[in-house]
From TrEMBL:
This is Cytochrome c oxidase accessory protein CcoG. Pfam families: Fer4_18 (PF13746), Fer4_5 (PF12801), FixG_C (PF11614). GO terms for molecular function: 4 iron, 4 sulfur cluster binding; metal ion binding. The gene is ccoG. PANTHER family: FERREDOXIN-TYPE PROTEIN NAPH (PTHR30176:SF3).
Length: 470
């Protein structure tokens, strides 16, 4: 029997592409209008994040999501699990904002305010300060291991780890009072959950911003995949003007490039070198583009040196390029019916939510009827027992009076006044009596009215059922 060896088939181009190794990107530092705005957003978001946990309000942390007591403190507002509707509204506002801004100007959030973008920018700044600019980092990585290389790499990673752990500590500080958390850290008395989340969030920051970087944007972020559903030809995007730039080629500044049959692009590659995701914008719109605008800054500087007009790479729309629209016509099409509808709906929801918060009543009452059978007194009156869960979401103690309505002669036969401490919940038993014959047999609708004694406008009416036995 002849044995025929099995030779594996050669890998095709598609199979090779599936196993493509990551090419490390060394973004070049770039100054310009868009770069400055990126750093403005970096400072703004990080001042909010790191500083917000240390702000105080009414002798407590200004922003605190206390899961233990199930209270969410946001400056003067105290929210409870019953206020879940506000979280739903916040998510709706976020989704509509995403639709609106993407329809107008693409991935603005990705390029300027996304945590992945912000922390990657900070980590690259640390890398640049320790290892040097782009060329120095490339040479350092290509060089064999030495004392200098080891010390530079170690210093960089130690700085990254310190920032990552501080980020994890700050994140947990929004759920555990940060002053208490700091004392526990220095006393080594942290609980297991605090340890876990500080290390977990710190590790995520260190890994995503230090190592994965553009891989998160390209392969892990779902927004990159469905963004095209929100784009159209009137969406502002970072675009290379092919008609003006091609054919590209290097040339002397003094040469009449038009006479040589060349376009404005000098093929310097600056737009590729400054891109944090390593794409060539001259190949057209790509899902990896995060709309940071750094390629615009780089190209504009080259155009200035060559004494060419700026705007070879710019924020514009496909229709503006195809039809050679001026800025006025382009912006008129940007604010089209689609974006106006998004903006109107978003504005209406924000207005309603703001009014709801402005007129938010710091009193909530849940009424539960006792499961026991109604009691019949010696006079024939009927009594039902209820449990009122009274929540005072204000940061001051309040005194309330309780009354009941719904039938002739109905009354509360026990205490009707109660004081509830600041931001607390008290269960309060209530015995309700109806005289004999004043209500029909079976279920009868009644209403509890709970009113602040000192501030009458703070009041709540809750429905309940009064049972009359046969």
């Amino acid at each position: 029997m002849k044995i025929i060896p099995i030779v594996p088939a050669p890998m095709t181009e598609v199979e090779l592409a599936l196993f493509e190794e990551r090419r490390k990107i060394y973004p070049r530092s770039q100054k310009g209008w868009f770069s400055s705005w990126r750093w403005v957003l970096v400072f703004f978001t990080q001042i909010l994040f790191y500083g917000g946990a240390w702000l105080h309000w009414n002798d407590r942390q200004a922003v605190l999501f206390d899961l233990t007591t199930r209270k969410f403190y946001i400056f003067g507002l105290v929210l409870w699990p019953q206020d879940f509707i506000y979280l739903a509204v916040l998510l709706v506002i976020s989704a509509l904002s995403l639709f609106l801004f993407t329809a107008i100007a693409g991935r603005l959030f990705c390029g300027y305010a996304c945590p992945q973008t912000v922390y990657t920018e900070i980590f690259m700044w640390i890398e640049k300060k320790i290892e040097g600019d782009r060329n120095a980092r490339i040479k350092l990585d290509d060089a064999p291991m030495s004392v200098r290389k080891f010390s530079l790499k170690s210093s960089k990673h130690l700085a990254w780890l310190a920032l990552s752990l501080w980020t994890g500590f700050t994140f947990v500080g929004y759920f555990t009072p940060i002053h208490v958390l700091a004392q526990e850290v220095f006393a080594f008395t942290l609980g297991p959950w605090e340890y876990f989340w500080i290390l977990f969030y710190g590790f995520a920051t260190y890994g995503n911003a230090g190592f994965m970087r553009e891989q998160v944007c390209k392969y892990m972020c779902p927004y990159a995949r469905f963004q095209s559903a929100m784009f159209d030809k009137d969406t502002l995007i970072v675009t290379y003007d092919t008609a003006r730039g091609e054919p590209r080629g290097s040339r002397n500044k003094k040469v009449d490039f038009k006479a040589e049959g060349l376009g404005s692009c000098v093929d310097c590659g600056i737009c590729v070198q400054v891109c944090p995701t390593g794409i060539d914008i001259r190949n057209g719109l790509q899902y990896e583009c995060i709309a940071c605008g750094l390629c615009i800054d780089g190209c504009d500087q080259v155009m200035d040196k060559m004494a060419y007009p700026r705007g070879l790479i710019r924020y514009t729309t496909e229709h503006a390029l195809e039809r050679k629209l001026d800025n006025k016509s382009m912006w008129r099409r940007v604010f089209r019916l689609r974006t106006l509808i998004y903006g109107s709906i978003l504005g209406l929801i924000i207005l309603v939510a703001a009014l709801s918060l402005a007129y938010h009543v710091p009193l909530k009452v849940d009424v539960m009827r006792d499961r026991s059978m109604p009691k019949v007194t010696d006079t024939g009156a009927i009594e039902n027992v209820y449990r009122l869960q009274i929540t005072n979401s204000h940061e001051e103690a309040h005194k309330y009076v309780i009354s009941v309505k719904g039938a002739a002669g109905i009354e509360i036969v026990n205490q009707t006044e109660i004081e509830v401490a600041a931001a607390s919940v008290i269960p309060f038993p209530v015995r309700v009596r109806i005289p004999a014959g004043a209500a029909e047999i079976g279920s009868n609708r009644i209403r509890f009215v709970i009113q602040d004694i000192n501030v009458p406008k703070i009041n709540v009416t809750e429905k309940a059922v009064f049972l009359v036995p046969k």
